């Protein structure tokens, strides 16, 4: 007799499935809750899928790096788990966040946080699959700590990196790499403290489940309020400026005075600059209109007029050239959020 029985095999499979469910379901549900909190629908399904895949790729890369450190460089496993892995994993996960922010693919703290949590979720799914295969005979107690706690930790830590990095780059109006370091450092410290189990494993997991989602939720609520205020303020000023351009009264404004001062450029180029400013305003207002409609539950498609404006904008940018784009920069809004609006319309 080898001690095997069909019922034992069935119980093992059922326990394994329940363990995986404990590891995956809560963090996926929390990600879904964050998406539902996004009343302006800033993040598309395609963006969420890309973030999940980026997190999964980061997990595979970190797994290879960890094996290299332990097997080939003889690094102590406890040192790896407590100190090295947190820094390595948070840095690798942050690479996709850095790409999103620097390429103006996130416009607000809300979408930064959602995509950050999605990256962490993708990472946790791959990591938990690995641990499920390596520790299939362990009980539910381990998975409450290993699966559920770690999954929420990974998602929340990367969300913090994204939120803090977006906040700093926005406030400083800079994409300097050093502005991403505070978020990565904070996430690595939280990750390291979790791995060291200074408190009991169950208490550490309970604290992570309470504190991290609460922190992310508070940031989301404040960001939603800031988004509403930004929409209202910018909308009024852009409508006023567009009316002045369309009515021909722009010459009496500071914008018109500035354009008149660009007499070193041919008149045709200055006219193209004014057209570019008008199209930027029209596209920005369209983007804001779409966001406001989303918050009311109405979906406005990107129509042919928007696509025509995008095409004309590309033509005008080529027409005025690099020097012209530099000259018009003082009156043309090109902040990360303004560029994000254009990216959103391009789909």
Automatic annotation (TrEMBL):
Transmembrane regions: 15-36, 48-71, 108-131, 143-164, 200-220
Biological processes per GO annotation: proteolysis
MF-aspect GO terms: metallopeptidase activity
Keyword presence, NAD: no
Source taxon at top rank: Bacteria
Alphabetical list of Pfam families matching this protein: PrsW-protease
Transmembrane found in the keyword field: yes
Keywords of this entry: Hydrolase, Membrane, Metalloprotease, Protease, Transmembrane, Transmembrane helix
This protein's name: PrsW family intramembrane metalloprotease
């Amino acid at each position: 007799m080898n001690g095997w029985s069909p019922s034992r095999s069935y119980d093992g499979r059922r326990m394994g499935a329940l363990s995986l469910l404990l590891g995956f379901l809560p963090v996926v549900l929390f990600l879904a809750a964050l998406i539902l909190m996004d009343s302006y629908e800033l993040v598309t399904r395609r963006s969420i899928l890309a973030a999940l895949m980026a997190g999964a790729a980061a997990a595979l890369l970190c797994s290879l790096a960890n094996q290299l450190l332990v097997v080939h460089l003889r690094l102590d496993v406890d040192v790896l788990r407590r100190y090295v892995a947190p820094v390595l994993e948070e840095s690798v996960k942050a690479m996709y966040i850095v790409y999103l922010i620097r390429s103006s693919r996130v416009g607000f703290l809300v979408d930064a946080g959602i995509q950050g949590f999605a990256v962490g979720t993708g990472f946790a799914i791959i990591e938990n699959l690995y641990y499920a295969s390596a520790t299939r005979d362990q009980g539910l107690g381990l998975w409450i700590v290993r699966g559920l706690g770690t999954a929420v930790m990974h998602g929340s830590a990367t969300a913090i990196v994204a939120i803090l990095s977006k906040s700093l780059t926005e406030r400083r109006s800079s994409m300097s790499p050093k502005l991403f370091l505070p978020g990565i450092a904070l996430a690595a410290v939280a990750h390291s403290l979790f791995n060291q189990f200074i408190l009991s494993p169950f208490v550490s997991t309970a604290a992570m489940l309470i504190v991290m989602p609460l922190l992310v939720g508070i940031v989301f609520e404040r960001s939603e309020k800031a988004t509403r205020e930004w929409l209202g303020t910018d909308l009024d000023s852009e409508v006023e400026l567009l009316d002045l351009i369309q009515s021909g009264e722009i010459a009496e404004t500071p914008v018109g005075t500035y354009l008149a001062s660009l007499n070193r450029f041919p008149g045709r180029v200055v006219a193209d600059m004014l057209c570019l400013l008008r199209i930027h305003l029209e596209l920005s207002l369209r983007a804001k209109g779409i966001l406001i409609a989303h918050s009311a539950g109405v979906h406005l498609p990107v129509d042919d007029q928007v696509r025509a404006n995008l095409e004309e904008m590309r033509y005008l940018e080529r027409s005025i050239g690099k020097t012209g784009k530099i000259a018009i920069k003082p009156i043309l809004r090109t902040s990360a959020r303004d560029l994000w609006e254009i990216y959103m319309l391009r789909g």
